[in-house]
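ok here's the first one, seq then struct tokens
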Amino acid sequence: MITKTVIIPAISGTTLMSIFSYVVSHAKGENFKEPKVLAQIVKRAFHTHKDKLPRMSGWAMHYAMGVVMTMVFQQCWKKTNTIPATKQGLVTGVIGGITGVMIWKILFRVHPNPPHIPFMRFAGHLLLAHIIFALGVAYCSRQFDPFVSYEEEGIKSTNEPS
């Protein structure tokens, strides 16, 4: 069951990632905005000239993937009785980033008319964006059970001093 313990960290992490992507895209003059790239993929796949449905689909897919990744990260932290903090955010961010790059690469390969994006730069951006996402998820997840309970029981984050 997807509850606020997943939804709130997922929305927080995905929103931080999106803000980062929009700022970088503006600064670099590139379209590294994941929801917009997803919208282009939908628009080109269905050969539509309408913008509203692809745009909504892009955002929905982006946030849905954020929920999925949040659930995976939280399960890893729960199984290891770990309070998520900076170290866990960095590790899961790198793993999530590599996974994300692979998913995007497959998506671009199987799509009949993918958007024209410099993929190596996009991949580097995705890695950093996923680290920001995971840090947001880690720190937001700390506010909910079981991670609050871990702190009350004296379980420390693996990157906090003893």
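and now the second one, same deal
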Amino acid sequence: MTQVPAASSHGLALGLADADRPRDWPPLTGAEARRVLAGFGLVPRSPPLWQSARPFSAGALFEVALLPGLRPPGSLPERVFLKRHDHRLRSASRLETEHAFMRHLMASARQDLHIPLPLTRITTPADSAQASNRFSGTTEQEGGNLYEVFPAFRGEDLYRHTLSWEPYRSPIHAASAGRMLARLHLASTGFNASDGDVLLMSGARAVQMPDLEAGLTDWLPTQPGLLESLAQLGMGAGMKDDWRRSLLPALAPAHQALRPYLGDVQPLWGHGDWHGSNLSWRPSMVPGKEEVCELFDFGLSGHTSAPFDLAVAVERSFIRWMNMGRDPVAWDQLHAFLAGYDAIRPRTLVERQLTGRFLPLVHVQFALTELAYYAALLQDLPTARRDVWSGYLLGHARWFESPVGQKLIEALSATLSGGAG
């Protein structure tokens, strides 16, 4: 019988830290915010209105005013979200690529997508009184940290306290999210930038190689600290617990099923982390009937494909990883989500097959880079081994071999917006 991972094994995978665990990154301070926001021609009016609890970075919401003597390049937001990244996780060039992708989406989609675009940084002294201040770039660097600033999004943050791996609140929410993801994929066409070699990315480079072992072997060294982390955990090449011995058998059935369709993959930039918590919602008088208003957090966006990105969305929101129980798949929401997607961007038969075949593999590269995050950056080997390697990477792969996991894969591959459930 296939072993389904317990909810406790997911405690820190995908950054799902419990309330008692100290934050990996310290919260933003008022002094820090004043220094950084000055680089964007802004000054905070008060202490943070709210501090984000999200993992892998630090963020806070501020009320702001324009620094005296400056003329902004556009309208001034009353509130901004300031986000800090460690330079080992995100580089300035990577953040600028994310920002370019967001601008491309807005330009291509016109009125169909709404994305808060990053603010531009001033390049003249912050106290200059000249009207000709020059603005350029959308990131600021201070020591080992990088910063980006966004206008506060419109709409309600209904999923602020909802973790990834938990379903939407209603099929109406799921359908609205499906329509919006389809619009994003249509607008993404023509954006061809490299997504770079950085940790914590939803990538497909290794898993969509015809030879999975060769693909992983070539990809692992490109991820900062990953080979060293595997060695620290006793899983390095040639060691007793060489990563190949447990990982390849766990992934082989899914990869074998995907292999016949690899020649049909059409590369496309995707969001990489599609979930209700990365969407804002237009208010409704009836709870559960809100519609998507804006989308944000492109930190996991990258060069994958529409079926891969759709499979990520399914893995994030329609399997109750945190509470598997007797009915782990939210079938009604899944059907609504896919029907919403199909209404905007109908998929081909090959894309349907690819979505189902990618599903048990979409977490692989992210989980492996998360291994490096905990083992190399945080020096937390127990979490890396227990929660990431065993609970997340292997646990999810094994669940997809269970009867219900196979039923989900086949339903996605065959009909997507109808069928099983």
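notes on #2: Confidence is low (pLDDT under 50) at residues 1-11, 126-135. The chain has two domains: 17-151, 171-414.
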